[in-house]
Amino acid sequence: MNNQSVDVCATATIEKAGLYDTLQDNGRYGYRSKGVPVSGAMDNYSYTIGNLLLGNYRNDPSIEITMVGPTISFSQPTEIVITGADFRAMINEKPAKLWQRIKIQAEDILTFSQAKQGCRAYLAVKGGFQVPQVLGSVATYTKAKLGGLAGKRLQVGDKICYRSSNNSKASNNSFKKAFNYQERNYHSLSYKLRPNINIQDVELRVILGPQQQYFAEESVQALLSNSYQVTKDIDRMGIRLQGKPLEFKASPHQAGGQEIITDAVAYGAIQVPANGQPVILGVDSQTTGGYAKIACVISADLPKVAQLRHLQHVYFTAVSIEEAQAIYKKQELIYSTLEGIING
């Protein structure tokens, strides 16, 4: 991968900051026992596809853009891919397409507006943004000032290094047939593989547990038969929902039965605090928690969680572990097929 003939240090400069833009990769693993969350890209599907379309490694750093995007200038030629939500991106005031490779020239200006639908977009650059790792990852975790640029969201004047190269890989016929091919050396992802972000009611598939026994049976059924509205409380730590309250079984040891002995939590776990309103935990959530978890969103549907925004509705569908694994394997097949075609 990353077979580039000439590498020149170039910079992407933040000319105007967005609402919450950070450098992210696949995340920081191996430190949760020390209280450090995984972090990384919230929408891992969009993030990964962006890198693969460029022939990058899956873990190469990209910029995660949230709700309102930045303006970025490029000092040297490169190629980029924009994935995820539509922020009406413009290059030199001309529309930039999503999910495909785009050539960038020196002094080009890339502008993002507000998200039309969804919540997050990803900007990948050929070869990945060149940023030092902290604890084995570039992922920005702002609460502890880890990763990214000094552990902060991107600000006006920030300069991010990337490798400039005029060399690009030739496409082949199998790529054209399987994933669509745009002229001018652009690689484009087939529409059938692009997530549908423009929907009001979002299905999230879940595996029940690990503590559904703490809840009344009626509440488990209520979770699966009612929709829940996304509140304004949305960030990388979690998404609070509003709907039919979930009730706990009476317990002689715990008030209402909602509290448990603190144990590990993960991205996608659905905690239920005392008010009975579910909270879907995000990639920057705490590493342990003392609220019962009624279910967990399956890995393949976490990108949907990343794109949720205020006033959308979600409904939950229970699947088995075996079904979740099969769905995950299909997603991995997309990655490996795309990876093989572009780099083969």
UniProtKB/TrEMBL annotation:
Database matches in NCBIfam families: urea_amlyse_rel
Molecular function terms, GO-annotated: ATP binding; hydrolase activity
Source taxon at top rank: Bacteria
Keywords: ATP-binding, Hydrolase, Nucleotide-binding
PANTHER family with a match to the protein in the record: 5-OXOPROLINASE SUBUNIT C
All copies of domain Carboxyltransferase, residue ranges: 33-334
Keyword Nucleotide-binding set for record: yes
Gene3D superfamilies: Cyclophilin-like
InterPro entries noted in UniProt: CT_A_B (IPR003778), Cyclophilin-like_dom_sf (IPR029000), PxpC (IPR052708)
SUPFAM superfamilies, per database record: Cyclophilin-like (SSF50891)
Protein name: Carboxyltransferase domain-containing protein
